[in-house]
Amino acid sequence: MENKPKKYEIVGPESTGKSVLTVALADVFQTTFSLEFSRFFLNYLNRKYIKEDLETMATGQLLWNKEALSNAENCVFFDTGVLTIKLWQEIKYGVENPFLSSLFLENLPDCYILCYPDLPWEADPLRETADLETRVSIFEAHKKLIETVGVPYFVVNGENRVEQVVKFINNSKF
Predict the structure, then answer these.
(1) Mean pLDDT of the chain
(2) What is the per-residue pLDDT for 127?
């Protein structure tokens, strides 16, 4: 039986170090990774995004994740995924999107790395939630949805996030 690479999806609220963590983990484990498609998409969008754009962001993210997976051997790291996009639609627009819900359930990783919002907020034109209380609420929404689908997860916090995740992965038995 062929061993498939373990898929780790780095998720959490804005400004929690997901992108930096993704690249650092790929470097430590000498593997592939995908960046956040939404950042690329939004930087080239010549208007404010609308809720229908979230479907494009989700499908684009999945394409980038699949490309990274196709070149991985033991593990691969995804800087976000459909989980975050699905939650963002529900938080920002107050509606659940059946298409995003379906994509989410069809593309679960082997493990989520959930980033806690305890790093200093870094302003960015694409970020919308500087308020710590809101960011903690978004963290809790991520955690609740992950627990609902039963995918293993690891919460990372504080400054030494790379070391925490490396230790977790090296000790994981799933």
Answers:
(1) 92
(2) 61
